[in-house]
Amino acid sequence: MSAVLAILGPGVLGLSTAQWAAECGLPTRLLGRDQEHAEAGLREVHRRWDRAVTQGRMTPEARDRAIERLSAAAFGAPALEGASAFLEALPEALELKAPALSAAIAWGSPEMLVLSGTSSLPIADLARRAGAVGRVVGFHLFVPVPRMAVVEMAVPEGTDQAWVDQARALGSTLRKRVVQVRDQPGFAAARMALAQGLEAIRLVEAGVASADDLDALMTLGYGHPVGPLELSDRIGLDLRLRIAEGLFANGEDRFHPPGLLRAKVIAGQTGLKGGLGFHTWTPDRRRS
Shortest CA distance to 213 belongs to which of 162, 157, 267, 279? Predict the structure, then answer.
């Protein structure tokens, strides 16, 4: 993969992906709604690299090389000049993602690979709303991107194989195992994680055990790196609820959202980003 990887959205996913792409040797451009928005994201990635050097996880030379590869720009036609791939990393909302994909296709070259970082929205729906049927590939990276060794690639029917091959090559450049799945609501990973998370919430709701103890059963008993309730907090309980509601509305009764999940979201207890969910979180993203 040559030229520039452009990433729209200096949020959790966008920053993590930009950081890792630059570390993997890719010239990377982090895009925001304006220049200051993008540069704020750039400063955060620089801070992460500085911390990695301080902790001995990265050499100063490697940091400096990565810094040279990563730039910031406002989302617009000039920002997509020379871009060989564009990754949309916006919040999980069709009304945000589809216009961004449409604009990127209009501004980028016809050869530019167009990817959506959604973890749950059907790519065919996004592409249809963007007026780009057959042009968009799902590219679901897991956060933190530097540590997670897989990418879930969702391919709608009718997508040209050339785009699929390019997306797979990008995944290889990012040192990820590429798992291709059928394009459907929730793809595969979100469905599996959501099913476990919803069942764990129902167990808390029924008073079977505490959130901490249920998570311990999965981490200490089954060797999972985090339990289903901590994972739900990290993903965001509001996002978990939105995905569950979408699948349930699509006729999949097993994803009926528990009342406790709704109550927490209504109360603003959305997990890590708000400091409180099924666990309590410190500002430095640690469970207290």
Answer: 279
Q: Can you tell me whether residue 28 is helix, strand or coil? A: strand
Of the pLDDT bands very low, low, confident and very high (cuts 50, 70, 90), residue 2 is low
φ and ψ at residue 257, rounded to 5 degrees: -70, 130
Domain 4-182: which topology? Rossmann fold (3.40.50)
Question: What dihedral do alpha carbons 240, 245, 246, 249 form, nearest 10°?
Answer: 160
Of 2.60.120.620, 1.10.1740.10, 3.50.30.20, 1.10.1040.10, which CATH number belongs to 189-274?
A: 1.10.1040.10
Query: In angstroms, rounded to a whole number, what is the distance separating the alpha carbons of residues 103 and 37?
Result: 18
* Among candidate residues 276, 280, 277, 240, the one with its CA nearest the CA of residue 258: 240
Alpha carbons 211 and 271: distance in angstroms, whole number: 13
Nearest in space to 153 (alpha carbons), one of 173, 183, 133: 183
pTM over 0.85: yes
Strand residue runs (E) in the chain: 4-8, 28-32, 70-74, 83-88, 113-116, 136-141, 150-155, 177-182
CA distance 2 to 25: 10
Query: Tens of pLDDT along 186-225?
Result: 999 999 999 999 999 999 999 999 999 999 999 999 999 9
Same fold, 4-182 and 189-274: no
CA end-to-end span of the chain: 42
DSSP type of residue 219: I
Q: Where are the domains of the chain?
A: 4-182, 189-274
